[in-house]
Amino acid sequence: MNLIIGKTGSFINNDNLGAxxxxxxxxxxxxxxxxxxxxxxARDSYAAQLHMPGKIFQDLVWWALKSLxxxxxxxxxxxxxxxxxxxxxxxxxxxxxxxGLFQGQGFLINEAHIVNRGNSYSVHHxxxxxxxxxxxxxxxxxxxxxxxxxxxxxxxxxxxxxxxADAAQETPGVDLILGLRFSPSxxxxxxxxxxGKRRILGKEATxxxxxxxxxxxxxxxDLSVVGIAPSGHLIHxxxxxxxxxxxxxxxxxxxxxxxxxxxxxxxxxx
Length: 270
Known about the structure:
The chain is α+β, with helices and mostly antiparallel strands. Helices cover 23% and strands 25% of the residues.
């Protein structure tokens, strides 16, 4: 059953979920810095780049866990009056960079809103409150005002399904998938039977050596933990990918309040 929501105020208590928080969790800053290093090392594998503010990304992680067991669809908008840091753009530029690949390319992300929640198919459809009446006939299920779209894969890798690829055809900007491995898992045990390239923030979840030595079946508390959410969930692994509707990969760089990448000093001095 698809539970449709209206504006975010009817579903999200922003005071509890960090939308107005000024600080990003230290553990999250650490894994974003690791991800940025990998983004730099693999920059020539991508056709474009997208800068994601760390504060907004932290909200996305909290919202995803608060919305369980559903997936959520998040509309992401940009500020056409602010461009990404040109120094960072140049430093992360790919040899196969494609200019003008997607709407809003090169502009700063400045807001995110939960638009829908549901299963892997229903989550992609916009509730009526979020549709744009002017463009609805030509923009299909995603006839909304947002430039980029992100949806979550609870306890599953951030690898696009057929439904994800179909929905991306109606995205003017970039599609993103946030995959989270967490416990307690409730009705959502870790699903790993899917192939595709994965981008992990930090390290892949590993089983503690004690459980390997004992030969016991893996329990949730045997997995390494990278952080703890306000919801009380243990976070074992965070994944994020971004792609254009043509199938080209988009390189995500996580940025701080000064629009520089987390881990910038380390990246530029290597």
